[in-house]
Specification:
The complex is a heterodimer of chains A (290) and B (272). Chain A has 290 residues and is an all-alpha fold. Chain A is built from eleven helices and two strands. A two-stranded antiparallel sheet of chain A has the order 1-2. The relative contact order of chain B is 0.12. The chains are: A mainly alpha (290), B mainly alpha (272).
Chain lengths: 290, 272
């Protein structure tokens, strides 16, 4: 039984294939979505935010980690660097949040033939990504504006503008360009695209091997913690602003608290990334030694 | 209708390809483009982060003036600048309108303006650094600051493959259009046409997924015959690749000028 399981682990070059495939296709789609203009109906923006179905499909069909990182890198290279819109450090946040979301969506699926599972994974991938980027956008205004709390109207407006964009993206891009196309592509490509890369299709049995290495429970728990850190911080701050509008703020304390919580969240997410990477390295070494 | 047709001509795939190659390769003769990538990264490490933590109007204005100057020196295409300005104004304006709606007053205007200046400094700095570097230079530069070899390989691969991929996508898309049937009624505000095109653009990825999978396999096999798996991790290979990098007099000159300017600016901002 052991030998059968080992045959399913990907070789280094197969991982590279998945990486290149995901990078070039998602990069291409990014370039197309950048070129398509968006339509505004009042404040509602009908734009093609991204073709999320490509990384979602690839993460579900292949090794999720390599497909996710490849897609994020493809976005940075094709969609930003080549169009001259590279944002430097800002791209780092996009890179981490997008690959994290796609990776989680990928490991949620144990059986690519199960349509319900695939649909759930597609939607939650988009929701996770949009949630992270919404929080980061709110945080940007928070840090960037000096006396954020004392200005009437600004706090609510930031939350409303960003929250609205979040629901807009999830409902429009999430359903039209993630849920429906993923449900269309995954069953069609399953069993067809894997032989082209010299692999066997993912089944219930062989997903077990990748799961054993990456321990998704641990990863998900850590991610949830990081989210909670962000979320609680965010909630407590808005509550203060809404209910105690005139209360004088202990400013020094508050800014300290903000920095501490941001620091905690950053440390948590960094340690998660390191855990994933080192686990992977260890697994690779183990494979190399065997 | 003529106007729309003109726009369509300008937005053709060919035009997009030419514009892209222009962004990548056209301006590598400027003074900033000749600098060492490490100098530019060091410079960017300050200008990309520091503005977030500065709340002094004079210092921010000075930084903005400095980055505007460097951006003019890099001769970036006007299209990129236009997109940047529209984006900045759009975000600031949107927030302003929303906060006025929630009972704020014009006092919000000043901090929002400061935020916009901060964002502008950061974006202009990144345009200065990343638009002036050619892809080869960027990938060597990234390699030199410890980014894995796979990333710099992907950058060169992307620039080589993109024209091919775009053309193939265009072919598939046209094939679907030829074989398919466009909706007879255009619908309110052309929504039927829009839906039809969106559907085609999504379905076109199906053949492309399969053919790109084949291409990815060929690429990796070709890489393997050249021993790339070893080359990505071997320090001797990295040393050979980085041998073209050299910090020259102009690099130190550029860094010294920036440093002097920033110091003077901080002193000025501190005392006034």
């Amino acid at each position: 039984m052991q030998t059968v399981k080992e045959r399913y682990t990907l070789t280094q070059s197969q991982k590279m294939m998945v990486f290149i495939l995901s990078m070039s296709l998602y990069g291409l789609s990014n370039m197309i979505t950048e070129l398509v203009p968006s339509v505004y109906v009042g404040p509602v923006e009908f734009s093609i935010e991204y073709f999320a179905f490509i990384p979602l499909t690839l993460c579900i069909l292949f090794h999720p980690l390599y497909a996710a990182i490849g897609a994020s890198l493809g976005e940075v290279i094709f969609g930003e660097l080549m169009l001259g819109q590279f944002g430097g450090f800002g791209e780092l946040e996009k890179f981490i949040s997008f690959s994290l979301a796609m990776y989680i969506a990928g490991i949620m699926v144990t059986d690519p033939k199960n349509r319900q599972q695939v649909g759930m994974a597609a939607l939650s991938g988009v929701i996770i990504h949009q949630l992270i980027s919404m929080m980061v956008d709110i945080g940007k205004v928070w840090i960037g504006v000096d006396d954020f709390e004392t200005l009437p109207g600004l706090a609510e407006s930031v939350v409303v503008v960003e929250g609205f964009a979040f629901f807009n993206d999830v409902l429009f891009s999430g359903i039209l360009f993630a849920l429906i196309p993923t449900l269309y592509f995954v069953p069609r490509l399953y069993g067809k695209i894997e032989p082209l890369l010299g692999m066997k299709p993912r089944t219930r049995e062989n997903t077990h091997s990748t799961r054993g290495i990456l321990r998704p429970k641990l990863v998900i728990a850590a991610v949830l913690l990081a989210f909670a850190a962000f979320g609680f911080e965010f909630l407590s701050e808005t509550d203060l602003n809404i209910f105690e509008w005139e209360a004088p703020f202990a400013e020094q304390l508050e800014t300290n608290l903000i920095w501490i919580s941001i620091g905690v969240a950053a440390v948590l997410s960094l340690s998660i990334l390191f855990a994933i990477i080192s686990r992977n390295k260890k697994a690779k070494d183990r494979i190399a030694h065997e | 209708m003529d106007y729309a047709k003109n726009m369509m001509d300008k937005l053709s795939i060919e035009q997009a390809k030419i514009e892209l190659l222009n962004t990548a390769y056209a301006n590598d003769r400027t003074a900033i483009a000749r600098l060492d990538p490490r100098t530019l990264f060091l410079w960017y490490a300050f200008f990309g982060i520091a503005p977030w933590f500065i709340h002094n109007t004079i210092i921010l204005a000075g930084l903005l003036a400095f980055t505007v100057t460097t951006t003019i020196m890099t001769k970036v295409s006007r299209l990129i600048l236009l997109i940047l300005i529209l984006g900045l104004l759009g975000q600031g304006g949107y927030l302003l309108i929303a906060s006025l709606f929630f009972g704020g007053d014009l006092a919000v205007l000043q901090p929002l303006l400061l935020l916009t200046v901060k964002l502008a400094v950061i974006s202009l700095a990144s345009i200065t650094v990343f638009c002036s570097m050619s892809p080869e230079k960027l990938s060597i530069g990234l390699l030199s600051i410890g980014v894995p070899g796979q990333v710099s390989f992907s950058i060169s691969y992307g620039y080589r493959m993109l024209p091919v991929l775009l053309e193939e996508y265009n072919h598939v898309f046209m094939c679907y259009r030829l074989r398919g049937k466009a909706p007879e009624k255009k619908g309110l505000l052309y929504w039927r046409m829009a839906a039809y095109f969106v559907k085609l653009s999504v379905i076109s990825f199906y053949p492309l997924l399969l053919s790109t999978a084949k291409r990815a396999r060929t690429t990796v096999e070709a890489l393997e015959t050249k021993g790339s798996k070893n080359a990505f991790t071997n320090p001797a290979v990295k040393k050979l690749k980085l041998s073209s990098l050299r910090m020259g007099g102009q690099d130190y000159f550029f860094l010294a000028i920036s440093f002097t300017f920033i110091t003077a600016l901080f002193l000025l901002g501190h005392y006034y």
